[in-house]
Amino acid sequence: MTNGEVRMTSRPIGVFDSGIGGLTVVRAIRSRLPSESISYFGDTARLPYGTKSAETITRFAFEDADFLVRRGVKVIVVACHSAASVALEKLCARLAVPVLGVIEPGARALVAATRTGRVAVIGTNATINSGAYERAIRALARDIEIVAKPTPLFVCLAEEGWLDNEVALAVAQRYLSGLADEGVDAVLLGCTHFPLLSGVIAKVLGPAVRLVDPGSATAASVERLLREQGLLAQGAPATSGTMRCYLSDLVPNFQLVATRFLGEPLAEVLKADLANDQ
After folding, report:
1. CA-CA to 98 of 20 to 30 Å: which in 41, 205, 209, 266?
2. What is the per-residue pLDDT for 159?
């Protein structure tokens, strides 16, 4: 292996999201690929993306990805479902490094999970309105029946840490109580925040409905891509890669909320100034 190839494999995986929710995807990647270093960018100054127009989300996604490219990443993971649903193809055409999103891996996992062929996708308004998941799912299984439902308040509940109290239960019941009656047997958690609410979501839907987390499926896709392109980190399997986190705004209580999403404290959090980072 040449020195250039060694340097390439040692570069970090870049992950970006509109805020901190993408740390659930980072958590899945770190669990599957502990030797890989990760550079994470959370656009906390401009969140949420899910309520913005496709044009604005695409512009933000370009800026986020360019920031990570300048940090020398070897691949970019678009953890934000809203950004992946409207900007992924344009990012792939724009960037010299490989780009992965959460949509296709999540769709594949959902199709594999259903037994009845009737599924549901829940997410932010932007993700649901884009129809990206429906297109990805039907590309895999044309006759599948899909219920798409925006559940934006789940984002606030996850960030507040209200994961299994009476408020979370009431919101989940309001959003989801009819899905099981419609014959849905698998539900895709189409936002990086939603895995934190899987307990209360499962409580409302019941044991017959499977919950699908695109983060785990995305981590598997990242491993496959790195292996195919010879980009896997060369350390021993037990080697711990570094974790560096950049935020466009150092929001209060970030460490507390980030630990909830990531499952471990963040050792290094840096302020990123997109306007002057060229």
Report:
1. 266
2. 85
Q: How is the chain split into domains, by residue range?
A: 3-101+216-276, 104-214
Looking at the DSSP bridge assignments, the partners of residue 247 are 42, 271
Phi and psi at residue 95, to the nearest 5°: -100, 150
Let me know if 208 is exposed, middle or buried by CB neighbors in 10 A (0-12, 13-18, 19+).
exposed
pLDDT band at 4 (very low <50, low <70, confident <90, very high): low
How high is the mean pLDDT of the chain? Answer: 92
CATH second-level architecture of 104-214? 3-Layer(aba) Sandwich (3.40)
Reply yes or no on whether the pLDDT at 22 is more than 70.
yes
Q: Is 92 a catalytic residue?
A: no
Q: Is 134 helix (H, G, I), strand (E, B) or coil?
A: helix
Strands 99-101 and 13-17: unpaired
Q: Architecture of domain 3-101+216-276 in CATH?
A: 3-Layer(aba) Sandwich (3.40)
Calculate the CA 197 to chain-centre distance. Answer: 15
pLDDT of 62 above 60: yes
Q: How many CA atoms lie within 13 A of 255 on its CB side?
A: 6
Cis-peptide, bond into residue 48, ω within 30° of zero: yes
Q: Is 245 a catalytic residue?
A: no
What is d(CA 235, CA 137) in angstroms, rounded to the nearest whole number?
36
What would the mean pLDDT of 272-276 be, rounded to a whole number? 84
Catalytic entry in 92, 156, 191, 245? 191
CA distances from 190 to 33, 151, 163 (A): 23, 10, 17
